[in-house]
TrEMBL record:
Keyword Nucleotide-binding applies: yes
SUPFAM superfamilies documented for this protein: YgbK-like (SSF142764)
E.C. no: 2.7.1.217
Record Pfam families: NBD_C (PF17042), SBD_N (PF07005)
Catalytic activity: 3-dehydro-D-erythronate + ATP = 3-dehydro-4-O-phospho-D-erythronate + ADP + H(+); 3-dehydro-L-erythronate + ATP = 3-dehydro-4-O-phospho-L-erythronate + ADP + H(+)
GO molecular function terms listed in the Swiss-Prot or TrEMBL record: ATP binding; kinase activity
Protein name: 3-oxo-tetronate kinase
Residue span(s) of domain Four-carbon acid sugar kinase nucleotide binding: 250-394
The keyword ATP-binding is annotated on this UniProt entry: yes
Listed InterPro entries: 4-carb_acid_sugar_kinase_N, 4-carb_acid_sugar_kinase_N_sf, NBD_C, NBD_C_sf, OtnK
Top-level taxon of the source organism: Bacteria
Record-annotated Four-carbon acid sugar kinase N-terminal domain positions: 5-231
Length: 401
């Protein structure tokens, strides 16, 4: 039978986050990296997540890749599509949330969809259409300084309104509080008025359950992992194969607040090498260091993560490619456990490793599941969203049994 839910995620850590949420809901979940080809086999599963690296590429390319995934899923009988973007709504005025959502809803003939980035378990909530990170508005959080998608406006109706020609409106918390019937009625009324996007307030998991029930009929649903996890439940046993032991490496390219703290702590426990964008021979130097360090100590961290005042503007791509080259060399040197911080960084690393799919395993921390790659040899990957995870996650991940 076809999976009942297909999910297209706009970055690789977003893909792992939503896969973890679906797995937690008891769904047997398969994760695929990149646009699957005609010959890609969809294993027997309840949900399939296709993780793309489309968050920060030109909008037309993001649209084309997302539509290709939608077609692939439809051809395999998957009827309901979830578009997963970041719980901090990472995007710019050029997109890519608006253009991709426009294309997916158009292709599905969906008059309206919900927009629900709330992830209460990570303290991302939406009230009166304003996105909060903990007790701060999005625009006052560290996301204001994101290297690729600085978020300076917390009003999601306004933010999305700049990315789409379609109408955007709010379903406010006072409606959500009245339950699924009230939200469904509000969605129907908005669709009748020609609104394409209903931004839904949500403060906690109860609100997500209400929105999930009210939007169950929609062919395309959009949001972060929280709403996806509320859509369906099942009761499948989730086996977790043992993680491979042996050399391990941490690669950190995220500059988000949680990652900076994790990297600072990991530097005290792991042999560490910092990539500095302006240096000549940046990659060769890192590879030489890696080779010696892995041979001697069996574990290492290479990072470019830096606070705003120490970053190199315009160096994002260069640093992603450098970390990807380090990852590929580490795998050749026998590393079997690869921990990556940052979605764009994870995309570059996974692509360099040639990984196309993975079994979703137990979570090392909330929203951060272990992945066992399909392919030979199997690698254990931990792809950590920039702002997820406890401070010692990068260190303990290399030691986990
Ligand atoms: N020192 C630096 N100077 C400038 N850019 C950097 C630096 N270090 C990393 N970057 C870039 O910043 C970007 C960080 O994005 P990435 O998606 O990896 O992390 P994130 O946004 O924190 O994670 P997530 O998307 O999972 O929340 C990458 O493109 C990375 O190459
Ligand atoms: O939703 C989130 O916060 C994460 O899954 C994410 O998308 C990080 O890139």
């Amino acid at each position: 039978m076809s999976p009942s839910l297909g999910c297209v995620a706009d970055d690789y850590t977003g893909g792992t986050d939503v896969a973890a949420a679906l797995r937690r809901s008891g769904l047997r979940t398969v994760l695929i990296f990149g646009v699957p080809g005609p010959a890609t086999v969809l294993p027997d599963s309840d949900a399939v997540v296709v993780a793309l690296k489309t968050r920060s590429i030109p909008a037309e390319e993001a649209v084309a890749a997302s539509l290709a995934v939608q077609r692939w899923l439809r051809e395999r009988g998957v009827r309901r599509l979830y578009f997963k973007y970041c719980s901090t709504f990472d995007s710019t005025d050029q997109g890519n949330i608006g253009p991709v959502a426009d294309a997916l809803t158009e292709a599905a003939g969906a008059g309206l969809t919900v927009v629900c980035p709330a992830a209460p378990e990570h303290r991302r909530t939406v009230y009166q259409g304003h996105l909060f990170v903990g007790d701060r508005l999005l625009s006052e959080s560290s996301m204001r300084h994101h290297p690729l998608t600085p978020m300076t406006d917390p009003d999601l109706v306004r933010v999305l309104g700049r990315q789409t020609p379609h109408r955007v409106a709010l379903v406010a918390h006072e409606t959500v509080r009245r339950g699924a019937g009230a939200v469904r009625a509000a969605l129907d009324a908005l669709r009748f008025q020609g609104v394409r996007y209903a931004v839904t307030d949500a403060l906690d998991d109860r609100d997500l359950d209400v929105i999930a029930r009210a939007s169950a009929h929609l062919p395309v649903i959009t949001g972060a992992a929280g709403l996806a996890g509320a859509l369906e439940t099942a009761r499948h046993e989730q086996a977790m194969p043992a993680l491979p032991t042996g050399p391990g490496i941490v690669l950190a390219g995220s500059c988000s607040a949680a990652t900076l703290e994790q990297v600072a702590l990991a530097r005290r426990h792991l042999p560490s090498h910092r990539l500095r964008a302006g240096r000549d021979g940046l990659v060769e130097e890192a590879l030489g260091w890696l080779e010696a360090t892995l041979a001697e100590q069996g574990r290492a961290m290479v990072y470019s993560s830096a606070p705003p005042e120490e970053r190199s503007p315009g160096a994002a791509g260069l640093l992603e490619r450098a970390l990807a080259a380090v990852a590929a060399r580490a795998a050749r040197l026998g590393a079997r456990r690869i921990v990556v911080a940052g979605g764009e960084t994870s995309g570059a690393v996974v692509n360099a490793l040639g990984v196309t799919g993975a079994v979703v395993g137990a979570e090392a921390d909330r929203g951060v599941p272990w992945l066992l790659t399909t392919g030979d040899p199997s690698l254990a990957l931990l792809l950590k969203s920039g702002n997820f995870g406890r401070p010692d996650l990068l260190v303990t991940a290399l030691e986990a049994p």
